[in-house]
């Protein structure tokens, strides 16, 4: 059994400890906002916040993160949209939208550590792959959310 706190709720996963966090979130917790892209740690679609770090959940076995606090896109803001979500909507960032939850989770961790990131800092932090190529708009949105 692996005990975590997910979106401020205690969770006990009765799964093989080697199960990637991605699949625990999607299949056991029905938190399907966290996406499966490559499964190899490259694309970032599966990014969640684990204890304030942006983590590619397809690469993290639940048995290795006992006792951590996990935040997914569903838990980013409980009552209304997070400023990042509002900024992404205002800047019309999503095209197909598949990569956006992982990008927003990566950006939310960036803003925890850098309240006013410049373009270079954003480009350095957002290593997520977007096949639609919305990078210019997402940089604008992250800077808008930081204001
Ligand atoms: Fe995890 Fe691509 S699905 S990095």
From TrEMBL:
Domain 2Fe-2S ferredoxin-type: 1-76
Keyword Iron appears in the UniProt entry: yes
Coiled coil: none
Alphabetical UniProt keywords: 2Fe-2S, Iron, Iron-sulfur, Metal-binding, Oxidoreductase
Keyword Ribonucleoprotein (UniProt): no
Protein name stated in the entry: (2Fe-2S)-binding protein
First-to-last residue of the parent protein present: 1 to 147 of 188
């Amino acid at each position: 059994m692996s005990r975590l706190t997910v979106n401020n709720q205690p969770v006990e996963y009765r799964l093989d400890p080697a199960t990637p966090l991605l699949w625990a979130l999607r299949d056991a917790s029905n938190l399907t906002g966290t996406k499966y892209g490559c499964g190899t740690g490259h694309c970032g679609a599966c990014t969640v916040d684990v204890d304030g770090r942006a983590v590619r959940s397809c690469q993290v076995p639940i048995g290795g993160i006992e006792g951590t606090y996990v935040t997914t896109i569903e838990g980013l803001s409980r009552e209304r949209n997070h400023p990042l979500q509002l900024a992404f909507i205002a800047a019309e960032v999503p095209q197909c939208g598949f990569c956006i939850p992982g990008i927003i989770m990566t950006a939310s961790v960036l803003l925890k550590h850098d309240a006013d990131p410049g373009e270079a800092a954003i480009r350095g932090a957002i290593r997520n792959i977007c096949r639609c190529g919305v990078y210019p708009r997402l940089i604008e949105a992250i800077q808008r959310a930081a204001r």
